[in-house]
Design brief:
Length: 643
């Protein structure tokens, strides 16, 4: 958990998700990510759109439009209209030039200027963001121009002059660069009408030939723009072979199907054709450009070469693990010649990612460790008894209210109603003016078909809240125990000291188990202690998975946390991953509710954080001391909802 903040550089997670959705929509890349960097640029190979932190200090409205304009430029402009190799080759030619930084900055600005015109012409809806961007740049570069003049950085000042001139803001050309500017002026005019990256590169090379003679001018020292690095050259054949192996390999545990395939690898092509069977409906028996194709597989460890365009979900097991997709094919040829190509497309679009990373890609290196509850020590039993006596009135009140409601519902009239099931006394239809012809089925007196799991954040930032949190857990346990509702209580954390790039150990401390929840004293709750980091998304997915195994009809997951998720290599995508985990868990039919424990005063940022993760199903508690007061109405509402 992040509880030491030295600089307020946090980005609103909801805005981050908006930018990711926008980037993926514009770039047509399903796995495109958005990262906040010093400069704005596109990493095409890794699929990352970098937006600039230049906009961080600005007001919220300008900040958001500025980030959007960066996404427009990179995910639409650079993605479809920039030739990366031309840029890389040009920068390589300028590598030994005495004014290479100046020429590089002009090259990248000219390309952005061209892309901006393309964006506004193709998509007029982007015009507002670019207009605000231009106005902001006019003020910023005017300030930078004056600063460079005072520092006697002539080419830095000339570059600012070029940008201001392009944005129709006129300033004086620096005295020392007037001769150079006069020679460059015709070429600068051509830059504004360039039609391609190649045209701009050719003009920059001409500018390089002119500027090389001005040896008295020092090169630019300020970098206002960046471009992605050129990938290292490797053997193409070897690289393709490696990529193919990566895409077609199975996980470490082989399935029966995989072993069979390995044993029969030398069979003829007819046998291979039997590996895949297409199921068609009558309406698609004569397919044209696309058809509904269904490939059957079992589990997630499979070598099925499907063309699914939708990520598989855990709940799909209910439908017999059938994955469906509708995609265009090459004419009407459905043989196995294009199987490898189809699988490559799937991996690029991310439709297969759930099979490879069932708990989220950012959690792919997590190792799981379950910590069983120890026998309660005498001091833990004494502490628990003290808490139990303190919350006993609340438990009694909840129990009595709930039992009275159940009794009223059980004893309420079941016959002669205006709605319900049609009864047998139909003669009243003729004899009564306002006949009561309906009845209700008698309520069964069996126990509630409901189960709960309480997931408790045991990160280090809970060090001053755990004692009060334990009181809330005791209320949770004693109330459900009194009502004979099975439940579990699990603490979770990540070991920050042992976490590495390839291994992030996550621990689950189950202090109350389903098996013993109805007759266990609960003293083991006192064993929950603050530990280190917290990886909420992974923990919610795992506990949701455990809840799906329960036979009860209504399943509820309650999460106690005190802030933003923070773990090894998790801070950037922690909120997004947790939001996706909550969404996926709810799709499995599990009601997921988050309870945020603040530090005495609820801030707007904390409310927005919980809203972004859990939506409206969240409760923000001002302090741990008030947790019991806030938990009571939550339990009451959930219990009455189950009636």
């Amino acid at each position: 958990m992040k509880f030491l903040i030295f600089a307020d550089t946090k980005i609103d997670s909801f805005v981050h998700m908006q930018l990711i959705d926008l980037s993926r929509s514009l770039s047509k890349v399903d796995k495109m990510d958005v990262s906040f960097s010093y400069h704005s640029y596109l990493e095409r190979k890794s699929g990352v759109t970098h937006v600039s932190q230049f906009w961080n200090p600005y007001p919220r409205d300008i900040q958001l439009e500025g980030w959007k304009s960066d996404v427009y430029l990179r995910s639409y402009g650079t993605q479809f209209h920039t030739d990366d190799h031309v840029i890389w080759n040009t920068l390589q030619q300028l590598k030994s030039h005495p004014h290479r930084e100046f020429l590089k900055q002009v090259l990248l600005f000219a390309e952005d200027f061209r892309l901006e015109q393309i964006c506004t012409n193709d998509r007029p809806g982007m015009m507002h963001a670019f207009k605000l961007r231009k106005e902001t740049f006019q003020v910023h570069y005017n300030r930078e121009y004056r600063k460079h003049i005072q520092q006697k950085r002539e080419l830095d000042a000339l570059f600012c002059h070029i940008i201001l001139l392009a944005n129709k803001r006129f300033v004086t050309v620096p005295q020392e660069t007037q001769a150079l500017y006069q020679e460059l002026r015709p070429l600068l005019t051509k830059l504004t009408t360039a039609q391609s990256t190649q045209d701009i590169a050719a003009i920059i090379i001409q500018m390089a030939e002119i500027t090389v003679s001005y040896t008295g001018l020092k090169d630019m020292k300020t970098a206002y723009r960046s471009f992605s690095d050129q990938p290292k050259h490797t053997d193409t054949t070897h690289e393709n072979e490696q990529d193919f192996d990566d895409l077609t390999r199975n996980s470490e545990t082989k399935t029966k199907k995989t072993i069979t395939k390995d044993d029969d690898s030398e069979k003829d092509e007819d046998d291979e054709d039997k590996e895949s069977h297409s199921s068609w409906h009558d309406e698609t028996s004569d397919p044209q450009d696309s058809f509904l194709q269904m490939d059957l597989d079992q589990g997630t460890n499979t070598d099925l070469l499907g063309e699914g365009a939708r990520e598989a979900e855990s709940g799909d097991a209910v439908f017999g693990s059938v994955q469906t997709s509708a995609q265009s094919t090459d004419n009407n040829d459905f043989n196995t010649e294009n199987e490898h190509e189809a699988e490559t497309d799937n991996n690029q679009t991310g439709s297969d990612s759930n099979n490879h990373f069932p708990y989220g890609e950012v959690n792919k290196n997590v190792t799981e460790h379950f910590v069983p509850a120890k026998p309660a020590a005498p001091d833990e039993i004494a502490q628990y008894d003290e808490y139990n006596q303190e919350i006993a009135p609340f438990v009694s009140q909840l129990k009595q209210n709930f039992l009275k409601t159940m009794e009223h519902k059980r004893t309420s009239p079941r016959e002669d109603l205006h709605f319900g099931r049609l009864g047998k006394k139909l003669t009243r239809l003729a004899t009564d003016k306002n006949p009561r012809l309906f009845r209700k089925k008698q309520e069964s007196q069996h126990e509630l078909d409901t189960t709960f799991t309480l997931l408790v954040d045991c990160s280090a930032s809970m060090f001053n809240k755990m004692e009060e949190t334990q009181k809330g857990i005791v209320l949770f346990h004693e109330t459900l125990k009194a009502l004979r509702i099975p439940h579990s209580v699990v603490g979770f954390w990540e070991d920050a000291a042992d976490a590495t790039t390839n291994d992030q150990p996550n621990y689950f401390h189950e202090v109350i188990s389903y098996r013993n929840s109805l007759h266990q004293s609960g003293a083991s709750i006192i064993q929950l202690e603050p530990q280190e980091d917290n990886r909420d998304g992974y923990s919610i997915r795992r506990m949701g998975e455990e809840l799906t195994k329960r036979p009860e009809q209504q399943k509820i997951l309650l999460v106690f946390s005190d802030g933003e998720p923070a773990a090894f290599d998790y801070e950037t995508h922690g909120v997004l991953d947790t939001h996706e985990a909550v969404t996926r868990t709810r799709k499995l039919g599990i009601e997921t509710i988050g309870m945020f424990i603040a530090n005495g005063e609820i801030t707007e940022e904390e409310e927005k954080l919980m809203q972004n993760i859990y939506g409206p199903q969240n409760v923000v508690v001002p302090s741990a001391a008030e947790l019991v007061d806030y938990l009571m109405p939550v339990l009451r509402k959930l219990l009455f909802k189950s009636l």
